[in-house]
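Re: weekly structure request thread

Next one in the queue (251 aa):
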Amino acid sequence: MLIKKELPDERELVLVKISKIMPHGAYCQLLEYDIDAYLPISEIASGWIKNIHEFIKEGQKEVGRVITIDRNKRAVDISFKKVTTKEKNDKLNEYNLEKRYEKLFEQAIIATKLNPKKAEIIKELSSKVNTYTEIIQMFIDKRDVSSVIKNKPLETALAEIVSKNIKPKRYEVSYTIELRSVDEKTGITQIKKTLEEIKNKGVGVLYLGAPRYRLTSEDSDYPKAESRIKEAQRLLEKQKNLSYTIKSDKA
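Done, posted below.
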């Protein structure tokens, strides 16, 4: 988050650090906000809790869900038991990614010697995006960032840092085909020619043993990788003397 909000929203997932345990609950620091929250003992876990210290410890980091907010008193109550395992893992991954991208941004600020203007730059950026993740993702996706980052040296430095530190995710799709010819005289030649045409479409072809072949396609964009296989399939459908079956290798 570029600039911390004063208060979270109701039902929002928040990352917390337990700072003080009381007999009937615990006070927690909201790591993404400059405010504390209260965790009632009834919201720690399902069932009856005899000893609160068996469930939580001071200094423990956890993901909670905001259940009530009193904006006038700046009082926030949270729950641990209302967070699913998936929600917890997703929130932790999101937070860790944001912190990593914040460090990359800091590197760019230092490299361009813009520390004196850092607060001003962040304020300007926050009018267009909310997180460091959004900024870095624009570079990963190779989008135009000139409307967001007005400082050209900073843009150049970020582009260089992102290219050095982040490798674009690659997606691979894999299918197995069984390819046969109904013409014994020209069949082998036609199969070889067809497979070469498939290779020319950017699809890898691996011989598994007649009549089986593996078709693979890789791209940073999953739909593009999948579309190449579909093109290969359309090419196979046009071959009059060839029959085939195709099956995804995805489990």
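The beta strands are 13-22, 25-30, 35-40, 61-70, 75-79, 171-181, 204-209, 212-219, 242-248. DSSP finds six helices and nine strands in the chain.
Next request, please.
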